[in-house]
Write a structure and sequence with these properties.
The protein is built from nine helices and eight strands. The protein is α+β, with helices and mostly antiparallel strands. Strand 3 and strand 4 form a beta hairpin. The longest helix is centred in the C-terminal third of the chain and has 16 residues.
Amino acid sequence: MAGDLSALLSIGHAAFYTLLYVEKGRIRVRLFDAAYEIEAGEAFLIPPDTYGERVGEWNLASGKYLLLHDAFSADECKVLYPDESGKRILKTACFDGAVDTEMLFRHLHAVLPKKGLAKRIRDYVKENLHTKLSLQTAAEDLGVSPVRLSAACKEALGCSFAAYVSRKRLDGAKHLLQNKTLKISDIAKKLGFSSKQYFSICFKKETGLSPSDYRKYIK
């Protein structure tokens, strides 16, 4: 079964995999606590009995959704980045209705990310928050290309590598600010911020409060 993205009011199905393919524009989908952005030429795979919601306006994007039977084996939501051959397969399946199931599943298996990379990214960021983290350095240390690392972050974490690092630093800051014996400048240094001033700017942008004001509200 296939249909237009614009007609898909509820996302997910009890018994089928839902495949979203974006031909033009971009869409955003929220599942659990993560938001995924799927751009033109990309697809999004959602396992059975997993449900999400549309985020923002979808009327500027065009594409199709396709329901796939449960012979396919994948247990996580994934953004897919098909090559030109894969795009032709997906467009044929979604737009022409001529689904070569074996070919489509073989291609989906080929573009699914390697298992375990998301956990390695989480562990790496946790262990290196105090350093000047960058996509290039992280990719080199993890033994993958920057493109692959960026894709894995977007697929598994729902955001860019830089956004994930920023989120974890601010989470760490909220925790460390509970220890009122720590200087704010020391917290900034411990979490890899270039200066106390930059830390304060980032923290206030996220929470609406400066680190010192935030500390006053901690019991």
